[in-house]
Amino acid sequence: MEAPPQVVVAKVVDEPVQKPASLPAPSPTPLGMLADDALQLKAAATCLFCFSLAQLFTLHGFLGCIASSIVVFYAETSPLGTAHGARFTHPLAVATAIFAAGALAATLVVSFAVLPAVPMEEMMQSCKEAQEGRGPWAIKDAMPIMPMHLDGFPDEMHHEGFPGEMAHAHPEAAVMGMDGQNDHPRHAFPVQHFETPEHIFPEHAFPEHVFPEHMPFRAGRTDGLTTERRPMMTMVAEAPQNVDVPVPPPTLVGRGARRLQEMAIDNCDEMVEYMSHYLPMILMLNMMVQAGLLFSACSVVKRAGILLAKARELGVQGL
């Protein structure tokens, strides 16, 4: 007789799932510890390179381009190669920061101390007056050659109270030009020596537009003879009558110098406009570029120093 089947009741017990033991985190390699610092150095060097290109023809711009190019272009892509490139980038970046700070200081002085002190309105007014009157160097056009009497004064000046008896011509007397020579092409008048010092070159002897009061004059000694200070010319006074006085040979002012004076008058309004409108904007742009280059160089110095310090702590050879 078969035994009846036995029913076995199994009791299910919920047990917590056993998790495998977690592996220890791998220790970072030397290259991994330098990776972040190397990336930060390359980013700062790229910024320095961009600002240095704007100042490439200056000393700090040239040094900044070299310092940033070593890390960005020539160093190896690995953090270790960047660390080796930072050896040369660090001192060059220091020099770049020093020269950039000096250039920024000079630009600030010009912008806030020199430029505001320039009398723009007076310069514009003087330019306008010079263009209208063409200046005293246009004496050839303003006062053509006139017939002279034996006393050295033109015909049209004799009615102003210059009789020939007032002056006694001495052939050894000489008129000196602005360059120290006689016979200036613009005012080559016969030269007289007057017996009394108070008659030397009266103020009303020549028209006002020929020798204005504000023009510079020369004064000094000529071969032991006293010289009288007058606008744009020097007359030898009190020359002895029976003594030969050496007279320097006549010289001519080059046409290029006269043309340069005329061009300065013709273009002075454009120069004043440039100084008043465009120069401040150029200085402001230059200050922005100089400040950006300075801060970028300081950032490169900081990042390169940190990278070199960590690499030396890890025992990287060659640093």
Write up this protein.
The protein has 319 residues and is mainly alpha-helical. The chain starts with 29 loop residues before the first helix and ends in a 6-residue tail after the last helix. It folds into 2 domains: 30-116 and 281-313; 128-145 and 166-268, no CATH class. Helix 1 runs antiparallel to helix 7 (268-313) and helix 2 runs antiparallel to helix 3. The chain has 7 helices and 5 strands. Strands 1, 2, 3, 4 and 5 form a 5-stranded antiparallel β-sheet that branches. Keywords: Membrane, Transmembrane, Transmembrane helix. The chain crosses the membrane at residues 48-74, 94-118.
Helix content: 40-55%
Number of helices: 7
Class by SSE composition: mainly alpha
The total beta strand count reads 5
Q: Assign an overall shape.
A: elongated
How is the topology of this model organized?
Blueprint: H1 30-54, H2 59-74, H3 79-114, H4 120-133, H5 139-142, E1 175-176, E2 217-218, E3 221-222, E4 225-231, E5 233-236, H6 255-266, H7 268-313
Antiparallel strand pairs: 1-5, 2-4, 3-4, 4-5
Helix pairs in contact: 1-2, 1-3, 1-7, 2-3, 3-7, 4-7
Question: What features would you highlight for this structure?
Answer:
5% strand, 2 domains, 319 residues, mainly alpha, elongated
